[in-house]
Each structure stands twice: as C-alpha cells, then as structure tokens.
Amino acid sequence: xxxxxxxxxVVCALSVTAVRAxxxxxxxxxGQHMSSINYTDTLSTTTxxxxxxxxxxxxxxxxxxxxxxxxxxxxxxxxxxxxxITSSQKSALGVENAAGGHVGTVLGGARGSLxxxxxxxxxxxxxxxxxxxxxxxxxxxxPVANQGTNRLxxxxxxxxLGADVHLAPIASLRFEGGSGAVLAGSxxxxxxxxxxxxxxxxxxxxxxxxGIVFHGRPRTD
Length: 221
Hints:
221 residues, signal, Outer membrane protein beta-barrel domain-containing protein
C-alpha cells in the first residue's frame, strides 16, 4: 500500500478521536542540512592519511502525530512521535555518485504550545525536543552488494521551533525549523571495504519543514 493511502487512513482514524481531545497528525515537506561531515580517505598514502569535510542537503518528507495531554490556560503540553525520509543525489564529497545522501529518522519527544492570535488569525507557536533513531550513510558510504545496508543507525536529538496557522477548525498550515546533531560512531566491519571512513563524533543536522496539520477542535482558545 502506498504511503499516501496509509497516511489518509491514519488521518481519518485520528480525526474521529480528535473531536474532543487535542490530537493531531501532520505531513510536511522537509529539507535537511547535515554539515561538518569529517572523513578520512583510507586509500591515501600520505602520513597522516588525507582527510576532508563535506555536507549533504537532502529533501523529502516528515509525518507524525502529537497529543496535547494537559492544558494550563492557553498553554498546552504534550508528546510527539514522528518519522522522516530525505535523500539527495549529491554526496558529501561534492559530486553525484552512488553514495548520494540519505537520512531516515524516527523521533519521539515532548512539546509545548501556546494558543494565541495574530489579528483575526489563530496561531499556535510551539517548541519541541525530540530524540531517537537516525539512520544515514552520511553522504559517504556507497551501497554494499550482498552485505546489507550502507546506512548506519545512530542516536540523534533535535530541538524544534514552529507555528501552526489555523486555516479551518480542524486544519492548520505548519512552519517548522529544527537544529540538532547525530552522534556518529566508528565504521563497522561490514563497511571496511569502503574507501572513506566517517570520523566519530557529533554531526550537526538542521531541518526545515512546511506542511499541513489535521487536528481536533481545541478545548480552549
């Protein structure tokens, strides 16, 4: 079943439960920028071996669900669960090659939002902190035949700042920016034949998104 059909079914199902509770689902167009990807050329004959630093800027989408379980006047506190997939043809080496750039995320966290108005328009700014799994090839590792994936699982954490601009009682336009990092580990043995090796450490990851949110009617304004 296509992802678009799955998302439509989820929206319909959650819309029923969201009539009274502040539950929402969203689908966002997403751009990411992973920078300061430091790597070593393992075929270099120099001492020390030649190194470099690159970046990738993959595009894709993010989908998720949130639940605001407590209200303090105009302030709501809740939880968020999201997943995203982005990719680019250009690798961190600055060229289009078999590596490309690929990032997949599954993150959960806490959020806080504020119900307010800008003139006649209802706007809900929010902040959020999420952490979880980030799967990526760093724009460095190329596909490995018969040896599994070239994408490694890492811990990642991102802080988000955004706003939901209400278009209708159950729909809003979302603008969101995020800044965080991926904790890169050492190259596993399954990728020992790769020419380049990504250095261990925190790699910055920025995220920018815009899309639609379907939510329940708020209990209070």
